[in-house]
Specification:
It contains ten helices and 18 strands. The chain is of the alpha/beta class. The protein has two domains: 8-184 and 332-366, 3-Layer(aba) Sandwich (Rossmann fold), CATH 3.40.50.2020; 186-330, Rossmann fold (3-Layer(aba) Sandwich). Strands 14-13-12-15-16-17-18 form a seven-stranded mixed beta sheet, sandwiched between helices. It has a five-stranded parallel beta sheet with strand order 1-4-7-10-11, with helices on both faces. Strands 2-3 form a two-stranded antiparallel ribbon. Strand 16 (286-293), helix 7 (299-305) and strand 17 (308-313) form a beta-alpha-beta unit. Helix 1 crosses helix 8 (333-344). It is globular.
């Protein structure tokens, strides 16, 4: 007899291998409907031809299987040899547009390999901020709506489902004509607060760095029963904003531990401006929570110089992280593994992962599960 058929397989590009291994290890502790294939470091091969066109291959048999493909938005400048030994991690470069091209071709290869379904696991998804045609000088521009363009291409190239952590805007689900699971990082940061800041709870003030982050900050303030402030950020010219004031009772800021909450930090300017105005109003320590550490240019240096502690997730690899003692990275493998388990076993993702108290209950139960 041949090997027993296993329905579920996890594949990963090189920038996602460590996360994929952690997710697979978590899923291997419990029953998965149809079974799960052992994880292989050589599941896919990605290289470049001499002219920089993409050369890739799916090394694993995917016929009839439910494929969960983890894809980072880092690409390798070094070559993978034909034995599929991956290049050194130092060769990883953050390149969203090129990485999307890899993803589209991987989806197509999986579809042609007759996978039963293809789920793209994209903890961070670039181009989500282009969700509408903006106005300039009071007039609507002739810009592309990139979030919709990429949603269309993912479907056309073969994806049946997308799993994403903290979408930039919640209504992005409506951009997709395939299933879209937008996971909420609140449970990850809430765990961090309970494990590390519980004794300082009375000092904490949650702060939204702009009006767009008010709902996110409000979730923390409501759950932990602490005050919420909102930074009144105004655009002074294209691409430049300034913190003009604080909405809320600023007398509560004296000596406070201020936690800024946002979905991503790119150049770092918004967080630095917010921290300055909070300090001017008597705030003590400043911590920034962000799900996606894009950290373009000198953003890491800005945060370090302004004594801002960053608590973030592993949704994006942070180059030379060890040089920045102010950065703490939280794992996301359990959250994604639980989402996969729910999908494969016909369970509710929202019930298991969106209510923090129930999340803790299910997580405790998961440690006690014994595979039958």
């Amino acid at each position: 007899m041949g090997d027993e058929f296993k329905k579920v397989i996890i594949l990963a590009d090189y920038g996602s291998i460590s996360l994929a291994q952690e997710i697979h290890n978590e899923l291997s502790k419990r029953d998965i409907h149809g079974g799960i294939e052992p994880f292989s470091l050589k599941g896919i091969y990605i290289n470049r031809f001499a002219n920089r066109e993409i050369d890739l291959d799916i090394a694993s048999n995917v016929r009839g299987k439910d494929v969960f493909l983890l894809k980072s938005f880092n690409v390798c400048t070094g070559a993978w040899d034909k034995s599929m030994a991956a290049p050194d991690k130092a060769n990883l470069v953050f390149s969203p547009t090129e990485a999307y091209s890899e993803l589209f071709l991987l989806n197509d290869a999986l579809k042609r390999g007759e996978a039963s379904s293809v789920t793209n696991i994209l903890p961070f998804m670039p181009y989500q901020r282009q969700d509408r045609r903006p106005k300039r000088d009071g007039k609507k521009t002739r810009s592309a709506i990139s979030a919709k363009v990429f949603a269309n291409i993912l479907k056309e190239t073969g994806a049946n489902r997308v799993i994403n952590l903290d979408p930039h805007f919640k209504q992005i689900e409506g951009f997709y004509d395939i299933a879209f699971e937008g996971l909420d990082s609140f449970v990850i940061f809430a765990e961090y607060i309970e494990a590390n800041l519980k004794e300082r709870m009375k000092e904490i003030v949650f702060v939204a760095p702009d009006h767009g982050s008010a709902e996110r900050g409000g979730d923390y303030a409501s759950y932990f029963k602490r005050p919420l402030m909102i930074i009144d950020k105004r655009r002074v010219r294209s691409g430049v904003s300034e913190a003009k004031g604080i909405i809320g009772d600023t007398t509560l800021l004296k000596g406070a531990l201020c936690i800024l909450t946002d979905d991503l930090i790119d150049g770092g300017g918004t967080i630095v401006e917010s921290a300055k105005i909070l300090k001017e109003n008597g705030a003590g320590e400043i911590i920034a929570f962000c799900t996606h550490p894009v950290l373009s240019g000198t953003a890491k240096e800005k945060l370090l110089q302004n004594k801002i502690k960053l608590v973030t997730t592993e949704s994006i690899l942070i180059p030379e992280k060890d040089k920045y003692p102010n950065i703490t990275v939280l794992g996301i493998s359990y959250l994604i593994a639980q989402a996969i388990w729910c999908i494969c076993n016909g369970k509710s993702v929202s019930q298991h992962l969106f209510d923090y108290d129930r999340y803790k209950e299910y997580r405790n139960q998961a440690t006690q599960i014994i595979k039958s």
